[in-house]
Design the sequence.
């Protein structure tokens, strides 16, 4: 029996030794990779975890539960000085129609709250995320005239809270805000706007940040001014087209008028409905008037041509009647003989007081080929009567003169307008 007990004791000792060896080999296997790192490798350095060294929680360190943070620091005492720092990240958009601007910025607040002071041997600050902000007092700063704003939350809330041992606090957040901007478009698009971002606190203090925005005009030169100028110049082409080409001149005039209307409509669609005249309105409407006057010019030319043709027809009939009723006046001192046909000379035309060459053109091809001799007897007694008759049949001046004058007057007036316009607004 004692031998059997000794055997069991020996067997138990062997089992314990075997288990100890297994435990040591398992521990060595898990710790071996850490020993194979080379010197200088960041993984070989053991970084101290600050959360393990702290013996108290953050809320206990800052004594948040011991104070009422729904009230400001030093309540019932002097006002708390709060510093505000704004760093503009980007100016996202400017809307003339809505009269607002959108920007993304970093908004930082600085103040001192002695209730958050904590003991520190290294005098280093502690940084927290947005979860602690909900537990402490922060300044009630808001954007005045803000239409919409939000705090960025990708991938987490873009909020940082930094507390220093003496109680100084830095509160920073990334915000996108859309604020109203009262714009004056009386000089649009040759204008500059001043937009103001206002921050205010229920302490009734307001911070103004002014942004001066100057508009680049090159875009509007390409989209508005150059097309309008080209349409006005295109309307002048009708002055060089024959006045009898009615379809060509009418279609050209209507096309330029409709194009100018489209340009004006497109510009006004992208602008707010203001009750005053803008600089671009002056240019476009003056250009529209020039185009419209070119259409009226042809209407006047066409009307005068029609009136002249009617009077020519009557004149030809009277000349034909006089040629049939007048006797031969051969040998009389004041007799004049003229050849009247469709291709007479300048001297023959000048011999008629007030008549033009076109007034003596025949009505059809057969009349152009025939020639007739008309003897006009002008004695001393009937000279005054004949002159009155000729004045009565005086024809309106050649309508070609209206087109000739328009070729000089329209471009000259438009160039003068452009000089005045750009001198005033530039």
Sequence:
């Amino acid at each position: 029996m004692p031998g059997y007990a000794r055997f069991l004791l020996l067997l138990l000792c062997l089992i314990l030794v075997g288990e100890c060896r297994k435990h040591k080999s398992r521990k060595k296997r898990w710790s071996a990779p850490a020993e194979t790192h080379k010197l200088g490798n960041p993984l070989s350095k053991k970084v101290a975890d600050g959360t393990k060294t702290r013996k108290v929680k953050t809320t206990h360190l800052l004594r948040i539960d011991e104070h009422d943070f729904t009230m400001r620091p030093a309540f019932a005492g002097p006002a708390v000085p709060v510093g505000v720092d704004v760093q503009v990240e980007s100016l996202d958009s400017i809307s003339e129609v809505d009269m607002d601007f959108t920007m993304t910025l970093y908004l930082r607040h600085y103040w001192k709250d002695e209730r958050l002071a904590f003991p520190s041997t290294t005098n280093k600050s502690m940084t927290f995320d947005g979860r602690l902000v909900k537990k402490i007092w922060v300044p009630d700063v808001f954007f005045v005239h803000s239409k919409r704003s939000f705090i960025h939350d990708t991938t987490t809330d873009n909020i940082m809270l930094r507390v220093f041992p003496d109680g100084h606090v830095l509160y920073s957040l990334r915000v996108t805000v859309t604020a109203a901007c009262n714009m004056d478009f009386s000089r649009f698009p040759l204008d500059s706007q001043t937009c103001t971002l206002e921050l205010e606190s229920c302490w009734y203090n307001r911070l103004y940040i002014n942004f001066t925005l100057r508009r680049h005009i090159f875009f509007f030169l390409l989209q508005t001014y150059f097309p309008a100028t080209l349409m006005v110049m295109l309307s002048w082409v009708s002055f060089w087209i024959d006045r009898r080409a009615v379809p060509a001149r009418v279609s050209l005039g209507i096309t330029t008028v409709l194009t100018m209307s489209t340009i004006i409509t497109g510009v006004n669609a992208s602008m707010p409905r203001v009750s005053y005249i803008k600089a671009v309105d002056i240019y476009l409407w003056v250009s529209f008037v020039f185009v419209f006057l070119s259409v009226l010019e042809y209407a006047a030319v066409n009307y005068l041509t029609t009136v002249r043709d009617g009077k020519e027809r009557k004149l030809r009939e009277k000349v034909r009647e006089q040629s049939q009723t007048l006797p031969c006046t051969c040998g009389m001192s004041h007799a004049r003989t003229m050849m009247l046909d469709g291709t007479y000379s300048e001297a023959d035309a000048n011999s008629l007081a007030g008549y033009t060459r076109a007034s003596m053109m025949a009505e059809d091809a057969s009349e152009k080929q025939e020639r007739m001799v008309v003897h006009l007897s002008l004695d001393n007694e009937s000279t005054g009567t004949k002159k009155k008759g000729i004045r009565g049949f005086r024809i309106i001046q050649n309508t070609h003169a209206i087109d000739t004058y328009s070729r000089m007057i329209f471009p000259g007036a438009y160039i003068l307008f452009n000089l005045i316009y750009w001198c005033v607004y530039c």
Remarks:
- The longest helix spans residues 279-325.
- The two ends are 122 Å apart (CA to CA).
